[in-house]
Write a structure and sequence with these properties.
Strand 10 and strand 11 form a beta hairpin. By secondary structure, the protein is of the alpha/beta class. About 5% of the residues have low confidence. It folds into two domains: 141 residues, 2-Layer Sandwich (Nucleotidyltransferase, domain 5), CATH 3.30.420; 110 residues, ATPase, nucleotide binding domain (Nucleotidyltransferase, domain 5). The two termini are 32 Å apart. Belongs to the ROK (NagC/XylR) family. This is Polyphosphate glucokinase. Pfam families: ROK.
Amino acid sequence: MTEAVSSPGSISISNASADVAGTQGFGVDIGGSGVKGGIVDLTTGDLIGERFKIETPQPSTPKAVADTVKQIVDHFEWTGSIGITLPCVVTGNVARTAANVDKGWIGTDAGKLFGELLGRDVTVLNDADAAGLAEDKFGGGKDTKGVVILLTFGTGIGSAILQNGVLLPNTELGHLEVDGKEAEHRAASSVKEDKDLSYKEWSKEVSRVLSRIEDLFWPDLFIAGGGISRKADKWIPHLTNRTPVEAATLLNTAGIVGAALAAQSGLAP
């Protein structure tokens, strides 16, 4: 199943393959349920035209997912470099773990796989890292100096750490032990649902996790992402940690935007 979603305030272009003086990029965000892609205005972080989404194939093997990515790239007739996110730890373009995708990704040279199939320069990175790049530059962390930490609250907790815009990749803070439990087993949004916690009750667990992280990294700002960030007004005011917390603003486009930024910069996690 495919889905074309218009971006609010976007503009139409007649030649989607054009990279106007390096101001446009292309990103693909691979998730457990959907693969999304689009053209990005690298000066504003906005999508240009539509976002195109195809359901993640099942099983989500490397070949099946790569073929899906090609469909998205072909849809836009994009000919420039491409950034692609994976729900995996990625080093040297090789997937080292596999969360919400087929375990066959582990050990796969994703850069080579996508590069050979697409015939373009490809940058592959962790999905939370991509979201962190986007939020730091265009979203909740815009204009913030120092250390910014993005945490995405979902089935687990994803993370990205940036210092003055420079990414420290693959931090995996969701696995940090907090009072005898992994952080994501204590404060993922799935825990709130499974235990039927109120926002105020759940925020106590989030505060414990944030307090532990800030004692280690002393960030200047936390950015809270994931679907639950849409209701940030219901729980962020209840947090008791010392570091300011802002809700993510890019939401469904953060992975695409961050992937495009990574490709532009030649990031090599």
